Amino acid sequence: MKIPFTKYQGTGNDFVIIDNRNPHYLTRKDTEIIKRLCDRKFGIGADGLILLQALEAYDFEMVYFNADGRESTMCGNGGRCVTAFAKKIGVIDQEATFLAIDGPHQIKIDANNWVQLHMKDVDKIEIGEDYFIMDTGSPHYVVFVEDISDLNIVELGQSIRYSERFRKEGINVNFVEQKKEGIEVATYERGVEDETLSCGTGVTAASLAYAIQQNSQKEIPVLTKGGQLSVRFEKEGNQFKNIWLCGPAQAVFEGIVQI
Fold first, then answer.
1. How many Å separate Cα 31 from the centre of its chain?
2. What 3-state DSSP class applies to 199?
């Protein structure tokens, strides 16, 4: 079987995206195929794979898989990339609504593929002595550091992700450095089991943690190794609503893969 695909990246977080409306090339059970397509040596290579599917009452459905081939929780950068892909193939115009595993998402996209993605509300945040834990569509552990460049992100991320508390289900780990304007974020992602250049739900979690720490009510500029994002929100105490993850989404290449 030959499958057409498009490779997208959002601030360095890259995805294989497949129009799975008609025909249905892949299903949620195709774990090994998806894992191989994401493999950077034996496949196309990506942090994850996204199926765009038709769904009644929505413009489309987003089904997201980590690089290990397993269907996963919400991916913010993936949501922005599949939005740009949906516009490219004529499924949407400038505004739309899609369904992901964590519920409906509103989206807005301009002519330069700057995508605004409405995220789920966050009203349960665990605040520890030196950490924050929350679910922004995916579970995240946030810790503030003095100098990200001085850290071994993979080693430190693994020590938390594979700790006794999180070993079974896993958790994404975000290291956050306060900058003159906004924050810088580095993320270790479960499922990829490595540092990624950017993580949308991680950037969102880091921004909300920073807003609690600084009692901030404004939009947060965020620098990642893959580029610049921003997160805006409405804050009521330690609860957040009307959260928008904003940033670029760019096509890298397209092709046909034989499986």
1. 20
2. coil
**116 pLDDT more than 90:** yes
> Is 75 designated active site?
yes
Quick check: 223 and 184 in contact, CB under 8 A?
Answer: yes
For the entire predicted model, the pTM comes to 0.95
Q: How far apart are the C-alpha atoms of 3 and 1, rounded to whole Å? A: 7
Whether 208 and 122 have beta carbons less than 8 Å apart is answered as: yes
Taken in order 40, 46, 49, 52, the sign of the CA dihedral is negative
Query: Residue 97's beta-bridge partner residues?
Result: 106
Helix (H/G/I), strand (E/B), else coil: 156:
helix
Which of 38, 75, 81, 246 is the catalytic position? 75
- Summarize pLDDT for 125-138 with one digit per residue, the tens: 999 999 999 999 99
Residue 23 has a CB neighbour count (10 Å cut-off) of 8
Give the bridge partners for 48, in sequence order: 15, 66
Let me know if 246 is a catalytic residue: no
The domains of the chain, with CATH numbers, are 2-110+249-258 (3.10.310.10), 125-247 (3.10.310.10)
